[in-house]
Specification:
This protein is of the alpha+beta class and 300 residues long. It contains six helices and eleven strands. The longest helix has 21 residues. It is globular, with a radius of gyration of 20 Å. It starts with 6 loop residues before the first strand and ends in a 9-residue tail after the last strand.
Length: 300
């Protein structure tokens, strides 16, 4: 039986070109890294999905600050630079084979046990029943309640907790290393959106933007009141658990690429939100354009 391999895809706000770091295989984990994740798992014990995730990220961030070994090696060299250039990062074999196989087994068992639900945004238009849906989701939480992904009685919970510990460390590292994104590790509500996804034959999710900005949803959006500690999706992470996938099997992630890497870091500068691009010139690459939400007037 083939062992599944995990592929991690990280996507920032302004995609967007696949990238393969030179270090394709995950190096052996240092003792300090294992200890950090054990501490994160312990910190999540007995908490709700949202509270557990916030505690996990805080614990991971604090552990990184106290680590005297030089920090985390959870992301290969070049990852931060690639994200900040406005492109996607592809890290092959990001998880050890045994962890990938365990997650794949847990996902399959949970699906067979009925723990997944249809996801309404990806209806398959080729089916006679227009309400039919082949995209299935096992959520961590929904508004007001925890989902099966965070339920200790569903599947092999310890496997999912280990993945959460890794992702909490990823989030803490990105918060520390990316330019001007410290709020990635802030202790605020509704920052946890981890789930299993499963696509059936013919299922799809149409082109969309993964960030949600009130500033861009309606006219004068920058002047609208915002919820206290409001957060937005800054980086999307997808971990693929396919076993020996090939193009003939179907399925495809399409990223709408930039023509050139950005000449400056993308995303945001303090309260200034990136809203567009300046085309590359003969002397400079593409440059991000930022909206100043505190500056009045039509010229903004």
């Amino acid at each position: 039986m083939a062992i599944a391999t995990a592929c991690l895809v990280a996507v920032s706000s302004a995609l967007l070109h696949p990238f393969n770091p030179q270090q394709a295989l995950n190096p052996p984990e240092a003792t300090s890294a294992v200890s950090r994740r054990q501490a994160v798992i312990a910190a999540m014990a007995g908490l709700s999905a949202e509270a557990a995730w916030r505690q996990a990220v805080a614990t991971a961030a604090n552990a990184l600050e106290l680590d005297s070994s030089g920090g985390s090696a959870i992301l290969p060299p070049g990852t931060i630079q690639q994200i900040e250039s406005g492109r996607a990062v592809v890290i092959r074999d990001w998880l050890p084979p045994e962890e990938t196989a365990a997650l794949l087994a847990d996902s399959s068992a949970c699906f067979e046990a009925g723990a997944f639900q249809n996801f309404i945004l990806s209806r398959n238009p080729n089916k006679k029943d227009k309400a039919a849906n082949d995209r299935w989701c096992m959520r961590s939480h929904q508004v007001g309640k925890d989902g099966p992904f965070a339920d200790p009685s569903v599947g092999t919970f310890a496997v999912r907790q280990r993945l959460k510990a890794r992702m909490a460390e990823v989030k803490a590292v990105l918060s520390r290393e990316l330019q001007d994104r410290p709020t990635l590790a802030d202790d605020v509500q509704y920052t946890h959106e981890m789930e299993y996804l499963r696509y059936g034959t013919g299922a799809l999710l149409a082109r969309h933007t993964d960030e949600h900005h009130v500033e861009l949803k309606r006219p004068n959006g920058s002047r609208l009141p915002k919820k206290p500690n409001a957060s937005r999706r800054s980086i999307t992470w997808m971990v693929y658990l396919n076993s020996e996938w090939s193009a003939q099997d179907g399925g495809q992630l399409r990223l709408h690429e930039r023509a050139q890497p950005s000449a400056d870091s993308v995303g945001a500068r303090g309260p200034d939100l990136q809203v567009g691009w300046l085309r590359a010139t003969s002397t400079e690459g593409e440059q991000p354009v930022f909206l100043d939400p505190l500056r009045p007037g039509p010229e903004n």
